[in-house]
Amino acid sequence: MNKPFAVFAAGLLAIALAGCAEPPASVRSSTPTPTSTASAYYKACLVTDADTAEGSPAQEGVAGLTRASSELGVDTDQVTVATSADYATAIQGLVDESCTLVVGVGSSATEAVQAAAKANTGVRFVLVDATPTESLSNLRPVLFNTQESAFLAGYLAASQSSTGKVGTFGALNVATVTIYMDGFVQGVDYYNQTKQAQVEALGWDVTDQSGTFVHSATSPWDDTAAGLTAAQSLTDEGADVVFAVAGAAGTGALELAAQTGGVRVIWSDTDGCQTQAASCAQILTSVVKDREASVFEAIKADHDGSGASGVLAGTLRNGGTHLSDLADDVPAETRTELDAVSQGIIDGTITVTSPSAVN
């Protein structure tokens, strides 16, 4: 999971870009498109970290850029950085390459993207899954209303529980985490309302915004043992489905599920059956941020001139967030119900709220 974006800002967007140097610590992949013309030149560019794992944010960003090249017929350029310290040089290289739009993915790119936007006011920038600390007219954040798909996960968890208790834990009590937990608990509540059930959601109080988090002496995002402890605090109370919103620390919940055999895990941020493939048997589904779709939509909006300002929100409606494939043993009836619930969220007949949601 990308590290927290914390405060949602109403970002905007802006104007054009220019071009040259390549940092030695980065790798460039350029895709010229023969349909571009001098009179209507457009070049979309992307900078990511070096995570090459299937389903990683970087790989999804590249897929979104590739889609823009194919479907929109625009030139593209992509740079991969080795470390966070390389972002500034890599982004300036893209500016010098006459890019019309530069897209950065993840919180590690935030500082460099924001600085580049301030220094290059004639260039447009997009920051995916992170929030800049100030609003700039040429910098547009792309954020995710994951409370919507987490609501579906809560409904699914309640439907699959045999103990009548499900739970969730997070890495930290920050907006990028609690937005998932808000939706999850509301989804359990909705299941109870529609099914006259009494499934209890452990680990998060929507009203008090307090709950179960990873307690780590090192990193709450990476401490597997501490993640296992957090998950076990929920299963000790009877939860048989656990929603882990804790990055790599969530693998502790997967280990616990493998050990006990009676616990299922819902993964967050990425498709767990891709990024945690060895543990796919323990995963009921994943609440996904679809960065591929969001990178494409951000480029398309800028290219078409339809994304003039404001935060671009990834939602169920535009595919920016969704559930991954469900476990094979989820009944057809439940799948049909989830489709109906999803449509209700999209058309507004079902409301999912979170203090962290993009308005």
Automatic annotation (TrEMBL):
- The answer to whether UniProt assigns keyword Cell membrane to this entry is yes
Main localization category: membrane
Q: Which residues form the ABC transporter substrate-binding protein PnrA-like domain?
A: 47-352
Q: What residue stretch is flagged as signal peptide?
A: 1-21
Q: Does the keyword Signal apply?
A: yes
Keywords (A to Z) from UniProt: Cell membrane, Lipoprotein, Membrane, Signal
Where in the cell does this protein reside?
A: Cell membrane
What's a Pfam family in this record? Bmp
- Provide the membrane topology annotation: Lipid-anchor
Where does the source fall among the domains of life? Bacteria
Entry's CDD domains? PBP1_PrnA-like (cd06354)
**PANTHER family cross-referenced by the UniProt entry:** ABC TRANSPORTER GUANOSINE-BINDING PROTEIN NUPN, TRANSCRIPTIONAL ACTIVATOR PROTEIN MED
Family to which the UniProt record says this protein belongs: Belongs to the BMP lipoprotein family.
**Protein name listed in UniProt:** Basic membrane protein A
Query: From which source organism is this entry?
Result: Brooklawnia cerclae
